[in-house]
Amino acid sequence: xxxxxxxxxxxxxxxxxxxxxxxxxxxxxxxxxxxxxxxxxxxxxxxxxxxxxxxxxxxxxxxxxxxxxxxxxxxxxxxxxxxxxxxxxxxxxxxxxxxxxxx
Length: 103
Known about the structure:
The chain is of the alpha+beta class. Helix content is 42%, strand content 25%. It is built from 3 helices and 4 strands; from the N terminus they run βαββαβα. It has helices at residues 22-46, 70-78, 93-101, and strands at 5-12, 53-58, 64-69, 84-89.
């Protein structure tokens, strides 16, 4: 793993076929995100890229939080088969620690 890793939030497209409560929507998003993590994990293994990803997890709101090298995000953006609505950079770890520590 290089030191050039960054955190990203991936929001997935969701099929909204009917009116559902916010709680149900969050549950649907989390389930979809968990499937996405499984799919990406398999792809990383197949392409032998797992050493370029420090972590990948589902957030409470159903987004995917991934800490990885920039080229992994570029490859995900290029894949038209993935149902990605947006990819946003997250705050760097050092920035987050400064906020918590107050320095």
